[in-house]
Structure prediction request, 182 residues.
Amino acid sequence: MDAEHVAGDLESVLFSEEQILLRVGELAATIGKDYAGREIVLVGVLGGAATFTVDLARALESRVEIGWMAMRSYTTSKRSSGAVRLLKDLDLDIEGRDVIIAETVIDTGLTMSWLIASLHQRRPASLAVCALLRRPHSPAFDVPTYVGFDVDPGLIVGYGLDYRGQYRNLRCAAVLAPHAVR
Prediction:
């Protein structure tokens, strides 16, 4: 779905599909240099990071295995609950392997901090984070972190991110207009 199909619901388009894919390619090139000759396990965070994870994997020029995890750290009102609840655990053994967590947006850092701690316990050879979007107030992590774009506050939808289950199929990343938030 293109932004023009839901233009009345959007405050602004942050990044077009072309801008996103160009940046994903740049992230993949950097990761490719840093992990030259090594096989990578991408751990995608469902559901928002599915699109980003697959696009990143396709842009990498090395062998990649993809695993998925799902967790929730927000209540239905989108306020942080202060705790992370695991909904789907990783099905892969990552011990001794190079792991990169793929996430579309890092906001409070609560979910990512929990995920890093959980995956560290599984003894990977290395652990890193690759996020397409990062809020300016998000914390730094004790692992290498690759970031596509820093973004200002606002409810971002598109490119896998949703609001109440809608807009994930929007090809761009956009800020949802206040009147569309119910």
